[in-house]
Amino acid sequence: MGTRDRIVAAAEQVIQELGLARATTREIARAAGCSEALLYKHFSRKEDLFLAVLLERVPALVPAVTRLNERVGKGAVRENLEEFAQAAVVFYRRSLPLSAGVVAEASLLDGFRRMLADVGGGPHIPINRLGAYLREEQRLGRVGPDADPDAAATLLMGACFHRALLESLVDLGPDDTLVPGLVGGLMAGLAPRSSA
User: Fold this and answer.
1) For 111, which of 8, 47, 125, 160 could close a Cys bridge (C-beta 3.0–4.6 Å)?
2) Which GO terms describe its molecular function (predicted)?
3) pLDDT in tens, 56-83
4) DSSP states of 128-156
5) What is the 3-state secondary structure (H, E, C) of 74-134?
6) Residue 118 — pLDDT band, cuts 50, 70, 90?
7) Distance between terminal CA atoms of the chain?
8) Which CATH number fits domain 1-56: 1.10.10.60, 1.10.560.10, 1.10.357.10, 3.40.50.1000?
9) In whole angstroms, what is the distance from residue 134 CA to residue 48 CA?
10) Burial of 53: CB neighbours in 10 Å, binned 0-12, 13-18, 19+
11) Cβ partners under 8 Å of residue 11, min gap 6
């Protein structure tokens, strides 16, 4: 593992152990076994390091979005959505501690917004891509013509985020039926109506 990767891994560990507010560059450098000067050689600002943790260490939704888009017209829409929703729940579970810390600190939030703009990213992207998937399925007749793909995408992603947030606050027990239940409820509004 190279120095940069070691620093990013150490930053993730320190953030998980101490929280974002207490994750200082000194603590991160110590955990990485390097000096703060070396840390700043790889990351010009603390915000850059936090973004690297979020983009590189948290399971991304990009592979799940890619798989979803490759399945337009293939398999069952419900199964495709269940796989995507499960990836979204895992993503939110892992990213919530970092995201909450960024949102809570105005200077970090400002820098984070700029960095997301620079890379063309943001939390709206998976919702938009999920909506695009549902529009394509709608075009193929696998989603009802009266369904609102963007609203459905927002509802599903919001429910996945909500579950991760609740899990951070209370023990909800196993979630074996969570994703099938969410998607099942959503499919009731998305399914094409059979003609009588």
Assistant:
1) 47
2) DNA-binding transcription factor activity; transcription cis-regulatory region binding
3) 776 678 889 889 999 999 999 999 999 9
4) HHHHHHHHHHHHTTSS-TT--HHHHHHHH
5) CCCHHHHHHHHHHHHHHHHHHHHHHHHHHHHCHHHHHHHHHHHHHHCCCCHHHHHHHHHHH
6) confident
7) 62
8) 1.10.10.60
9) 34
10) buried
11) 23, 28, 31, 32, 49, 50, 52, 53
pLDDT band at 100 (very low <50, low <70, confident <90, very high): confident
Q: What is the pTM of this model?
A: 0.79
Domain positions in the chain: 1-56, 58-196
CATH class of 58-196: mainly alpha
User: How many Cβ atoms sit within 10 Å of the Cβ of residue 153?
Assistant: 23
The answer to whether 104 and 21 have CB atoms below 8 angstroms apart is yes
pLDDT of 134-183, one tens digit each?
A: 999 999 999 999 999 999 999 999 999 998 898 888 888 777 778 888 89
